[in-house]
Amino acid sequence: MPIYRAPVEDYRFLIHEFLEAEKQRDLPGFEDLTPDLIDDILTNAGKICEEVLQPINQSGDAEGCHFENGVVRTPKGFKEAYRAYSEGGWGGLSAPTEFGGSGMPTLINMALGEMAMAANQSFAMYPGLTSAAYGALIATGAPWMKEHLVPKMVSGEWAGTMCLTESNCGTDLRLMKTRAVEQPDGTYRMKGTKIFISGGDQDLTDNIIHMVIAKIPDADGQIHDDLSTVNFFMVPKFLVGEDGKMGARNGVNTGGIEHKMGIKGQATCVLNFDDAIAWRLGPKPEPFKPGEKRSLSAGMAGMFIIMNAARLGVGVQGIAIGDVAYQNGYAYVHERRVGHALTGPAEPDKPADLEIVHPDVKRMLLHCRAFVEGTRALLCWTALNMSVAHSKRPDAEAAGFLADLMTPVLKAFCTDLGFEAANLGMQCYGGHGYIRDNGVEQFVRDGRINQTYEGANGVQAMDLVGRKLGRKGGAAPLALFGALTTWLAENEKDEKLAPYTKGLKRGVESLQAATMWLAQNGIKNPNDAGAGAVDYLRLMGIVTVAWMWARMAKIALTKSDDFHKQKLMCARYWMERIIPECPMLLERIQAGSANVMEFN
Ligand SMILES: Cc1cc2nc3c(=O)[nH]c(=O)nc-3n(C[C@H](O)[C@H](O)[C@H](O)COP(=O)(O)OP(=O)(O)OC[C@H]3O[C@@H](n4cnc5c(N)ncnc54)[C@H](O)[C@@H]3O)c2cc1C
Q1: Which among 198, 486, 554, 579 is least buried, having the fewest CB atoms inside 10 angstroms?
Q2: Whose Cα sits closest to atom 16 in ligand 1?
């Protein structure tokens, strides 16, 4: 049976020592955040994840979800766990208090999210998507939806989903066919089929609020292959009146559930919208003139809220799966005996040494750990930037640019490395990892989807290179390089810190050169940007995590206990073993696109 221990101590370090949350009282949500309250939340979040969610992870994978007579059932134990999770208020941890939530900042909610995803990704996706959905409703919903729907979603009584994908389009949403036609009473009737909808149906909640994108026909009654007529809708499974009363079943029918490689306890559904009653969200679009072209409808803003929240949530899944795989690998190599240390037996009285004596085994585990703890710091720093962006601080705008820049990086870098870590954790088990009984092959299967959904990682890289770098005159990379070079200038004369600042500087030089090269060549030849995008995203991930490690090393150098010493060990690994990838990635980016474009 796999194990999981919630990383409460590491989050306490990050929140108290690294981000100095107590000094952030001027930020929204931080006003009343005392150290005791933070510790209490982290401890209790860890407890429910370890004691309630993790024990049904392996059984949920073995049993999977069921679909019979149009009804979806989640695996045994999920209902009870969902009730405990909701009654504990965990689904509304960062929801505003006016909607029944606890009003905690995103930073605290991300800590809970990581623990829940590591304990049981299939389960944690149900409340995870619900919080992204109510976030979008708070931003774009009508007053009656905020009054009656949002509190029920915050409490966990009702759930939420995000419905974008159709059989012929996931990335290229211009091609979607689902349409919604306005009715005299202002509602819409929706027709179409969405596929791969996480939590699209389940037996955990009384109602499900689907957040759906669909096209409104143009003035000529046609559906066009562009995004201009795409709008954002709220479509409940059971109808809800403006007084909040639940009524008859809406025309949203479950066509089936997918049989998947992993996250088998998560119901991934085909949803048929058969003249379903839908409410359009966001500003009312001006009527279209025949043939008029628009780039993007205003109603899409709500969808971007839900998508950005979900992208960060998927990045968290990458870290989570990496950590649980690491923890199990670590435990196994301290029990398994295999071979002898290269320098002679470590335990001569035993037939073989523990597996941990081997340098390559240490490398595998350190690789996972330096990734998990480094990206966790990057995630926390980004979450803090999101709060700064919503504050009145002078650096609010720059913080917003940084959070925006880091969103695709966290999604893709954390899920790529999370999958690498899941694989390495399994490798520590040798052949026993490949056998189902030990439960670690599940991490590889569960973690694989994180690289694909919520925008495939290659598409995240295109978002970074094609949109984020150039927006507002390059404001985001300028904010990042400004912060990085200022920190380096302040710290590079510190001799004790030199092993870390030198590595960081090397990485920053590669990243600056790659950014410059893409700025100069990507516009002339978009294929150069496309061919280098994935390498560029990885480079930015490595360098930003190196910055986090250098900053954590600075704190650790002032302490002598084991916890802080181990931070220095991981920081050293990142600087000496991961930073050397930077010049290689730069060289690959500068090689341009001809070497791939000749492949037809
Ligand atoms: C288990 C599971 C759960 C899901 N949950 C949801 C959900 O809750 N809601 C929802 O709406 N969807 C959901 N999805 C759908 C998921 O988001 C899409 O599958 C994903 O975005 C990719 O879309 P696609 O499958 O149509 O692949 P395509 O769009 O056909 O892309 C195929 C591949 O082409 C490449 N590619 C495509 N475009 C580009 C480009 N511009 N640049 C570079 N490379 C490109 C990528 O490598 C990509 O993987 C889920 C999918 C799965 C499997």
Answers
A1: 486
A2: 453
Mean pLDDT of the chain: 95
Q: What pLDDT, in 10s, does the model give residues 190-218? A: 999 999 999 999 999 999 999 999 999 87
Average pLDDT over residues 363-375: 98
Tokens for 221, please give them.
Answer: 């009654």
What is the Rg, in whole angstroms, of the alpha carbon atoms belonging to the chain?
24
Are 478 and 405 in contact, with CB atoms under 8 Å apart?
no
**Is 454 designated active site?**
yes
DSSP per residue, 407-458: HHHHHHHHHHHHHHHHHHHHHTTTHHHHSGGGS-HHHHHHHHGGGTSSS-HH
Å from CA of 210 to ligand 1 middle? 19
CA of 125 to the centre of ligand 1 (A): 17
Flag whether pLDDT at 426 surpasses 80.
Answer: yes
Q: 52: closest CA among 103, 100, 120? A: 120
- CB-based contact 9:563 (threshold 8 Å): yes
Alpha carbon distance 49, 74 (integer Å): 18
What is d(CA 214, CA 15) in angstroms, rounded to the nearest whole number?
A: 41
- Both tokens of 238, joined, read 């059971």
For helices 359-389 and 526-556, give the axis angle rounded to 10 degrees.
100
Which residues sit opposite 158 in a β-bridge?
A: 207
Residue 225: exposure state from Cβ atoms within 10 A (0-12, 13-18, ≥19): exposed
The whole-number average pLDDT for the span 367-378 is: 98
The separation between the first and the last C-alpha atoms of the chain, rounded to the nearest angstrom, is 48
CA-nearest residue, atom 22 of ligand 1: 170
For a substitution probing ligand 1, which of 175, 448, 452 has the most ligand atoms within 8 Å of its CB?
A: 452
pLDDT at residue 293 in the model: 62
In angstroms, the CA 24 to CA 15 distance is: 11
Catalytic residue among 114, 373, 420, 454: 454
151-160, 264-273, 274-283, 579-588: least confidently modelled range: 274-283
Q: What pLDDT score does 305 carry? A: 81
Cβ within 8 Å of residue 227, ≥6 positions away:
173, 174, 295, 296, 297, 300
Residue 284 has pLDDT above 90, yes or no: no
Q: At what angle do helices 121-140 and 441-448 cross, to 10 degrees?
A: 30
Q: Which tokens in the block code for residue 279? A: 């409410």
pLDDT of residue 288: 63
Q: What is the pLDDT at residue 283?
A: 78
How many whole angstroms from its chain centre is CA 48?
Answer: 21
Q: According to DSSP H, which parts of 49-202 are helical? A: 57-63, 78-87, 106-119, 121-140, 143-155
> Cβ neighbours of residue 320 under 8 Å, at least 6 residues apart?
113, 114, 115, 116, 117, 118, 121, 418
Give every CB contact of residue 506 below 8 A, 6+ residues apart in sequence. 579, 582, 583
Judge whether residue 102 has pLDDT over 80: yes
CA 110 to chain centre: 9
How confident is the model over 478-525, as pLDDT tens digits? 999 999 999 999 999 999 999 999 999 999 999 999 999 999 999 999
- The tokens describing 431, both together, are 């052949």
- Over 70: is that where the pLDDT of 115 sits? yes
